[in-house]
Amino acid sequence: MSKLPARPPKVLMLLTSDFVTARYEALRARAPDLEIVTELGPQADPDITALFAFKLPAGIAPRLPNLQLAASVGAGADGLLAAPDLPAHVRVTRAVEPGLGLSMAQFVALQVLRQFRSLPIMERQHAAGEWKRLPVPDARQVTVGIMGLGSIGGVVADVVAALGFKVIGWTRSDARAARVPVFVGEAGMAAFLGRSDFLVCLLPGTPQTARLLDRSRLAMLPPGSFVINVARGGILVEDDLLALVNEGHLSGAALDVFATEPLPPDSPLWRHPRLLVTPHIAAQPSVGPVVEQFIENLRRLANGQPLLDEVDRLVGY
Ligand code: OXD
After folding, report:
1. Known catalytic membership, residue 30
2. CATH topology of domain 10-97+285-303
3. Which side of the chain, N or C, has fewer Cβ within a 10 Å radius?
């Protein structure tokens, strides 16, 4: 376990959800000597040098003139990077821990298998007391296309491949570490989508990925394909997806993330029979490791050492 630096910084945590509150309580228990505030007065606070949060509303950063580190409690740092007034010199990290890729892989495998092995149909048959044997499909004939092959996407690709599916990947720019056939950039998009019977979105939320999966791109998927979004809601244009499901081009979707979260009760996504909505729970960095990572980064910051899981602010992940 890392030690706090000799002169621990004052930390601001913004308790914007239960998810952040759980990390706040764990950090207080783990480092009782650390001064953590959860509210900011109207005046600037020059003592706060580190922020640990999921979202950073506009107007906060200018009141932190000595802020050095903005650490995301989540796997994505987009909620911090979206702040228009976060100065360019502030370093940003995201929460990464070894269990995250496996949790995501479990969730994606669950959604792929649920659809592939017709679980919704069998649940309906069960409810109706109907004994009807469906054909058992062959995973080797089915391609799962994974967008985003970073530390999480790589584990998902391995697990899905181990289940017998053909796996391909798409990345915006970097295919060096890929263990599966990979398509790159805009040039590789149509070929990638055209082969993906399942499309799994694991891309980071950045200005470049916003609304990337719109009607024109979703229409490139083969007829009957199924979409799984476990990344960020803003990447997928929900109305376009819904239209393509209603038109029969897509067989359905499993959506864990949404343009607006929580998903509003009147959203048509909730009650659509061919969609499965889950409340942003595909995977979460576990509390303990994330708190340790934050403390280690405070120590590294104080010692001038490279930070763990620092985000490249120019690319956004
Ligand atoms: C996220 C998370 O960043 O849940 O989405 O950690």
Report:
1. no
2. Rossmann fold (3.40.50)
3. N
